[in-house]
Amino acid sequence: MSHGLRGHGGGRADRDGPGGWRAVATRHALLPLRVFLGVTFVYAGIDKLTDPDFLRAEGPGSLGELMNSVRDTSAIPAMVDLALKSPVGFGYAIAAGEIAVGLGILVGLLARIAALGGALISLSLWLTVSWDTEPYYYGNDLAYLMAWIPLVLAGAATFSVDSLIAQRRRHRRVIGSRAY
């Protein structure tokens, strides 16, 4: 009894061809990562905007309190000092950045730029908020940073606005080359 994939002609399907399951899996391999990071970053941004305590300069649960608590243990205290000049403004900027990055990667619009933004946010959080976490693998910001790198390199090749734009450009080139 054969348990292999069967093509239309009854023979074994070409697993490595352009329509084979390996090729399809390869094309869509980054899709779960895009969905996870996109949803997580949109949620994180909305969570910051809707938390009445977070967007304050001081007090329990405020960004100001968090920044003051990590200032002396961060890798780059100057980054924390910059945020402490206007914690509320910085909080809004981080929240807006997370939402923009999350939506960009979810819909695949300027996906490499969105992924770079996500990587930079994660890097800045790792160097400040979670730098002192021991052992290092308990902190999630480094893992998020590493998760963004494949998307910076590959972009959003499928199910994305970027792929639709690229497809439209290819179509116009083909039509344009036939006109001559």
From TrEMBL:
Keywords: Membrane, Transmembrane, Transmembrane helix
Cited InterPro entries: DoxX (IPR032808)
Its membrane topology: Multi-pass membrane protein
Location relative to the cell: Membrane
Transmembrane segments: 29-46, 89-106, 113-131, 143-165
Alphabetized PANTHER family for the sequence: DOXX FAMILY PROTEIN, INTEGRAL MEMBRANE PROTEIN-RELATED
Protein name as catalogued: DoxX family protein
Source organism of this protein record: Streptomyces meridianus
Taxonomic lineage: Bacteria, Bacillati, Actinomycetota, Actinomycetes, Kitasatosporales
